[in-house]
Specification:
The complex is a heterodimer.
Chain A (H helix, E strand, L loop, with lengths): L4 H8 L3 H9 L12 H8 L4 H4 L6 E2 L7 H9 L4 H16 L4 E2 L19 H19 L7 E9 L1 E4 L2 E9 L4 E8 L6 H12 L11 E5 L5 E6 L6 E13 L10 E5 H6 L10 H7 L2 H6 L9 H8 L8 H6 L24 E6 L5 H10 L1 H5 L3 E4 L10 H11 L2 E6 L1 H7 L1
Parallel strand pairs in A: 3-9, 11-12, 11-13
Antiparallel strand pairs in A: 1-2, 3-6, 4-5, 5-6, 5-10, 7-9, 8-9
Chain B lengths: L1 H8 L4 E6 L29 H22 L5
The chains are: A alpha+beta, B mainly alpha.
Chain lengths: 421, 75
């Protein structure tokens, strides 16, 4: 599949600088220097983007801006980290005035790339990226997405108990995350129509009529801008979000199984109580108190039982804030108990689980010795199956330790692979 | 073990492959994970095993720091 004319046209419509700044708006924090791409690529050693782009010899510090690493990341299966990495590292480089790439010798680009001349080299990177995508398209017969501007209609359906607000989310199977009701605007509709259509589709209620059963109130006078590196092939998409508040006159239709109420606290945390990922758009909404306030309750007679059983709080419970605190990410509650994850703090040793083949016993013991200083400092508590006391249930012990471990070391050899995979 | 790797991908646990002996692990389920010792060079192929393990221990120490900073409450 070659580059389509339409794809190119929409790509040009994206103002890169705006898209980048827009991505920066969603940076949560940048505490420390990110790892350089060279480090990451070196440790991944899968993929050869640096070679393909003629980067050999250059000090590559920031390349993923143009999606190359995002593409590699997708292929290497660490797709979830990439957009975060992208924002985190770009923000760091910008705030420290560091060059994104140096000692780079390529016609048509600057030798040292900084944020100031970044865009001058963009055509080179884009060409390389396009070539790469077109290779993949041809190879896999897929039609690749390109960087684009995408208007989205979002419908906030809100319910309140005490001071805790809940918003209806739908589980998106492809993106593996909960998302607010809403979706992309199609060519034949405006944002409002898109929002109404998505509402019908996602609530599986084709008979819902806008104006009769519910109203949509626009909350945004101008679009909220939000950009992300797509998890497929590194295209940057800038989303223009038009947010509506839905107010129902008739009862809310029964919820399909993939539609759930998610609290504002969970949205802030980015994960649900049971650990499901929540779309960044939800966090964005939550990070905008003015907007959040403007959202009206969608229904009067909310099924409080449903929400309260989920939260395990009584609706009249006085310290409602307490309930919200309980939803904080640090107290991630998991129904499948042994896998629940307790965050580390400096006093508590991290549980380390060592998985190895018994044929590699000797090397394991050597590693164990080298970890002894970490143990002495109280930083880790190491567990491996030689520690099972005689007479105990071996299988159960292993799975309990594995479930509660925070760090798992896999001692890779051919025999390990033969026994574990 | 596949479950552990899935949990690693969603950030619940950190999984680090320690490459003891040469093995083509990149193409398997561990592909894409950041391995130790550095550059994923197998411990037995280092000139000194002690040096390799010291590198591993150092890598583990850094990973511990990552773990504690990433689980710190967001301000």
């Amino acid at each position: 599949m070659a580059v389509s004319r339409e794809g190119l046209a929409t790509k040009r419509a994206v103002d890169w600088r705006e898209a980048i700044l827009c991505a920066l708006n969603t940076v949560p924090s940048h505490r420390e220097a990110p790892k350089t791409i060279g480090e990451i690529a070196g440790s991944l050693t899968c993929g050869n983007s640096s070679e393909r782009l003629g980067l050999a010899g250059a000090t590559v510090t920031f390349l993923d801006l143009f999606g190359v690493l995002a593409w590699e990341g997708e292929r290497c299966g660490f797709k979830h980290q990439i957009p975060d990495y992208f924002r985190h590292s770009l923000a760091w480089y910008l705030s420290h005035g560091k060059p994104l790439l140096s000692n780079w010798d390529r016609p048509g680009t600057s030798k040292t790339i900084t944020i100031d001349n970044l865009l001058d080299s963009a055509p080179y990177f884009l060409k390389a990226l396009e070539q790469r995508r077109s290779d993949i398209s041809q190879h896999e017969g897929l039609d690749m997405g390109f960087s684009r501007l995408q208007p989205v209609g979002v419908v906030a359906i809100k319910a309140t108990i005490g001071a805790a607000a809940f918003f209806l989310h739908q589980w998106d199977k492809r993106a593996e995350q909960h998302q607010l009701i809403g979706g992309r605007q199609r060519p034949d509709e405006d944002q409002r129509e898109a929002a109404a259509r998505e509402l019908r589709e996602e609530l599986e209620a084709p008979d819902l009529v806008l104006g009769r059963d519910y109203d949509l109130k626009i909350l945004t006078s101008t679009a909220i801008k939000f950009a992300e590196v797509s998890r497929t092939y590194g295209a940057i998409t800038q989303y223009d979000l038009w947010v509506y508040s839905a107010v129902f006159r008739s009862p809310l239709p029964p919820r399909p199984s993939d539609v759930t109420w998610i609290s504002a606290a969970e949205m802030r945390a980015g994960t649900t109580l049971s650990g499901g990922r929540i779309s960044k758009l939800s966090r964005l909404l939550d990070g905008n108190p003015k907007l959040l306030e403007a959202i009206e309750d969608s229904i009067d007679n909310l099924d409080e039982l449903e929400l309260t059983s989920r939260l395990n709080i009584k609706p009249s419970a006085q310290p409602v804030e307490g309930a919200v605190v309980r939803l904080a990410p640090a107290v991630r509650v998991s129904s499948d108990a042994p896998t629940s994850y307790t965050p580390t703090n400096e006093r508590q040793p991290v549980s380390v689980f060592i998985s190895y083949s018994h044929k590699d016993e000797r090397l394991k013991s050597e590693l164990d010795k080298h970890l002894s200083s970490l143990k002495r400092e109280g930083l880790v508590r190491v567990w491996h199956d030689r520690m099972i006391s005689p007479g105990s249930d071996r299988k159960r012990d292993i799975s309990a330790e594995l479930g509660s471990a925070q760090l798992i070391l896999l001692l890779v050899t051919a025999s390990f692979f033969a026994s574990e995979f | 073990m596949t479950k552990a790797i899935a949990r690693h991908r969603i950030g619940e646990v950190k999984v680090i492959p320690i490459i003891l002996r040469e093995y083509d692990w990149h193409s398997g389920p561990l592909g894409g994970l950041q391995a130790l010792p550095k550059d994923g060079k197998a411990v037995v192929s280092w000139p000194s095993k002690d040096k390799a393990f010291a590198d591993v221990a150092n890598g583990v120490r850094l990973a511990l720091k990552d773990l504690s900073s990433s689980s710190a409450p967001r301000s």
